[in-house]
């Protein structure tokens, strides 16, 4: 069997993520919002604060954060049908990942008896939509919290950790950061690494695709992923600070 061709990257080396750009306060109706581009992948994230506790948080001293994820019909080459009632397994899995990642970033004691909704909509998909959604969600939460501080609704910054994510994979024998769609299709293994800008690990999702990999390869993927998240978060912090 002929081995799959190794995709050639345009304008970046194997350990460099795709170009990142983020703009916040892009939706005037949302409590916080951000538009994020990572290569050709584009995400719109919005924040809604509801003065109602999640059912399982009634009586708790903390609020709750939940996330929703959707791909717009023409975010891909073929039209994605809108989901009306039942959600597919992939979407449900991604929503749970987003919720866990973004909850870990927040001090929810500031939102007692309230629920934060983070809605992430994929405008254009070219691989890495779940990690890009975590980044967009974090940027939208930053915008939301900045507004609360500037309007005097909060005196303390409620974001405990700056949380980001990146994909990392083995394409042939090469470790590559931030796989696009063509690379993801032929990767021997790929991980989605969620971590903080200080290098603390939150979650790892993924594994081997075409056969087992060694512990050394897995460790290399993980270490590379955490380091790449730190670099991406440094770039994001610079862009968020430049927007007022």
UniProtKB/TrEMBL annotation:
Superkingdom in the source lineage: Bacteria
SUPFAM superfamilies to which the protein is assigned, alphabetical: Ribonuclease PH domain 2-like, Ribosomal protein S5 domain 2-like
Reaction equation(s) it catalyzes: tRNA(n+1) + phosphate = tRNA(n) + a ribonucleoside 5'-diphosphate
Keywords of this entry: Nucleotidyltransferase, RNA-binding, rRNA processing, Transferase, tRNA processing, tRNA-binding
E.C. numbers: 2.7.7.56
PROSITE patterns for the chain: RIBONUCLEASE_PH (PS01277)
Residue stretches making up the Exoribonuclease phosphorolytic domain: 18-144, 162-226
Binding site for phosphate: 90, 128-130
EC top class named in words: transferase
UniProt xrefs under InterPro entries: ExoRNase_PH_dom1, ExoRNase_PH_dom2, ExoRNase_PH_dom2_sf, PNPase/RNase_PH_dom_sf, Ribosomal_Su5_D2-typ_SF, RNase_PH, RNase_PH_bac-type, RNase_PH_CS
UniProt similarity note: Belongs to the RNase PH family.
Role of this protein: Phosphorolytic 3'-5' exoribonuclease that plays an important role in tRNA 3'-end maturation. Removes nucleotide residues following the 3'-CCA terminus of tRNAs; can also add nucleotides to the ends of RNA molecules by using nucleoside diphosphates as substrates, but this may not be physiologically important. Probably plays a role in initiation of 16S rRNA degradation (leading to ribosome degradation) during starvation.
PANTHER family from the UniProt entry: EXOSOME COMPLEX COMPONENT, EXOSOME COMPLEX COMPONENT RRP41
Subunit text: Homohexameric ring arranged as a trimer of dimers.
Descriptive protein name: Ribonuclease PH
Source organism of this protein record: Deinococcus xinjiangensis
Phylogenetic placement of the source organism: Bacteria, Thermotogati, Deinococcota, Deinococci, Deinococcales
Gene: rph
């Amino acid at each position: 069997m002929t081995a799959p061709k190794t995709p050639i990257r345009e304008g970046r080396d194997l350990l460099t993520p795709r170009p990142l750009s983020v703009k916040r306060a892009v939706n005037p109706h949302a409590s916080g919002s951000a538009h994020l581009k990572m290569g050709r992948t584009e995400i719109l994230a919005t924040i809604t604060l509801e003065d109602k506790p999640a059912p399982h948080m009634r009586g708790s001293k903390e609020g709750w954060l939940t996330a929703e994820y959707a791909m717009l019909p023409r975010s891909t080459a073929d039209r994605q049908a809108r989901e009306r009632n039942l959600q597919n397994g992939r979407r449900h899995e991604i929503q749970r990942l987003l919720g866990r990642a973004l909850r870990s970033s927040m001090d929810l004691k500031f939102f007692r008896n309230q629920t934060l909704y983070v809605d992430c909509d994929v405008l254009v998909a070219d691989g890495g939509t779940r990690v890009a959604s975590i980044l967009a969600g974090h940027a939208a939460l930053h915008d939301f919290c900045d507004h609360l501080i500037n309007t005097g609704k909060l005196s303390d910054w409620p974001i405990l950790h700056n949380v980001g994510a990146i994909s990392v994979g083995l394409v042939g024998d090469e470790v590559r950061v931030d796989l696009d769609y063509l690379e993801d299709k032929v990767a021997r293994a790929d991980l989605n690494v969620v971590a903080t800008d200080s290098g603390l690990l939150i979650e790892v999702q993924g594994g081997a695709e075409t056969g087992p990999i060694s512990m050394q390869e897995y460790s290399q993927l993980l270490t590379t992923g955490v380091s790449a998240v730190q670099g991406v978060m440094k770039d994001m912090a610079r862009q968020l600070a430049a927007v007022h």
